[in-house]
């Protein structure tokens, strides 16, 4: 069951997208202030929370193998581009059109 996973780490979000269904795994981005008062992106991902946590732990331990760096880089660049567009337009949230329409529930 995919109950969803949320992270504020762009690299972890990219890794989860890379390992799951590509960019389409990203369902939403919400900007919120962290404990220091700094505006931070929080990424909502369409994956089981236990899977997301295991991927995060592997990533932080340096044990996550990336066999297709080009694919990972394309996902990363697409997320960064989306964040830049959000900041330029003053938006504090984004939701995947597929997720909003219910095609990725």
Secondary-structure blueprint of this entry?
Blueprint: E1 5-7, H1 10-19, E2 26-33, E3 39-45, H2 49-60, H3 69-89, E4 93-95, H4 97-101
Antiparallel strand pairs: 1-3, 2-3, 2-4
Helix pairs in contact: 1-3
* Spatial strand order of the main sheet: 1-3-2-4
Radius of gyration of CA atoms, rounded to a whole number:
13 Å
Percent helix among the residues? 40-55%
Order of helices and strands: EHEEHHEH
- Euclidean distance between termini CA atoms: 10 Å
Tertiary shape: globular
Largest sheet: 4 strands, antiparallel
- Residue share in β-strands: 15-25%
Give the mean pLDDT: 91
Structural class: alpha+beta
Question: Which terms summarize this structure?
Answer:
single chain, 105 residues, alpha+beta, 4-stranded antiparallel beta sheet, 46% helix
Characterization of the model:
It is a single chain. By secondary structure, the chain is an alpha+beta fold. The chain has one domain (5-98). Helices cover 46% and strands 20% of the residues. The chain has 4 helices and 4 strands; from the N terminus they run E-H-E-E-H-H-E-H. It has helices at 10-19, 49-60, 69-89, 97-101; strands at residues 5-7, 26-33, 39-45, 93-95. Strands 1-3-2-4 form a 4-stranded antiparallel sheet. A hairpin with a 5-residue loop joins strand 2 and strand 3 (39-45). The longest helix is centred in the C-terminal third of the chain and has 21 residues, at 69-89.
């Amino acid at each position: 069951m995919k109950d969803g996973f949320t992270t504020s780490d762009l690299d972890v979000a990219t890794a989860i997208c890379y390992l799951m269904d590509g960019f389409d795994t990203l369902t939403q981005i919400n900007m919120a202030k962290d404990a220091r008062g700094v505006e931070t992106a929080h990424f909502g991902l369409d994956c089981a929370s236990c899977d997301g946590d295991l991927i995060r732990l592997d990533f932080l331990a340096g044990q996550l193998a990336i066999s297709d760096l080009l694919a990972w880089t394309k996902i990363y660049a697409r997320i960064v581009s989306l964040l830049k567009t959000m900041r330029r337009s003053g938006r504090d949230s984004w939701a995947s059109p597929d997720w909003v329409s219910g095609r990725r529930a």
